[in-house]
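Q: Hi! Curious about what HNH endonuclease looks like structurally. Here's the sequence.
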Amino acid sequence: MVRLWVLNTLPAHWERCRDGPTDADAHPERQLGHPWHGIPSGGRAPDPRELTPGEDLFVVRRTGGVGVSGVWTFEAAREVEDQEIVPDVWRDHEGETRDYDWLLYCRGSPEREVEPPMREDFGGSFPFHHSKLTGTGIAMEGDDRAAYVNALIDHGVSETAERRLRDALETPATGGVRAADSDPPARTEYTTTRTIRDTKLSTMAKELYDHRCQLCGDRRERRDGGAYAEAHHVKPLGDPHRGPDTASNLLVLCPNHHADFDYGRVRVDPDSLVVEHAYDDAVDGTFLTVDADHDLDPAVLAYHNDRIASF
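A: Let's find out. The predicted structure is below.
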């Protein structure tokens, strides 16, 4: 039974998490060099006593807008009796020193590092607000779990990772999150509405532009040399925007300019296609590239300029 958990990691902690423990005097030899994570005292996280070694999957995301950076398999939990075994960089939480209750030893499979990271489209294809991801670890269930699985597959992962993620998608929703030393909480039921995203549209759009950013013309590469670009819904799919999941509402962008559109740092004139950028002089005053076979709707550009852009 494969269950899916999201683990949050501060950007400053990421490399230490990915590279794993190195001290053979403090950690089991079989865990050296493999990814790991930690649960700080009082942290909202999966109870290690409920995790299944070799089965449960951790979607590990870097906070601060970086996104999902790894998909790991839980291997073993260790209760922390001596804080000396915890990396100093982990204990520093943005200037605050924290103790840790548990270490989570993992395996870097099916995807030790998602490169480039997958940044969630909150307010768009993701059916929940980012505030739901507060804490160290969160159990993903129902539509929330499906959103992560589908987005990661669309983003591009290995065949093994895709298979493991689909296994998690088919698992009945079970488990929960709580402080590791707390009693089970009262059950709360709620309903979510999932925004269905057509991944074929984004794939076709990327192929039309040869994975080049319509704003700057940049063509990124994955670690394996394959081309990489991101599809952006100009008018977001989720509430309150309810934009259409059509090619007329899509742009193909590099990760940097995708973020700039999300954060409202770009405007595009619906008629002239002249780009106005809040700080990037390299694209400010240039023209958005639109292929003759791409029927981009001027109305969604106008909506973005009026409702999302802010500078």
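A: A fun detail: The helical segments are 14-19, 88-91, 142-155, 159-170, 199-208, 255-262, 298-307.
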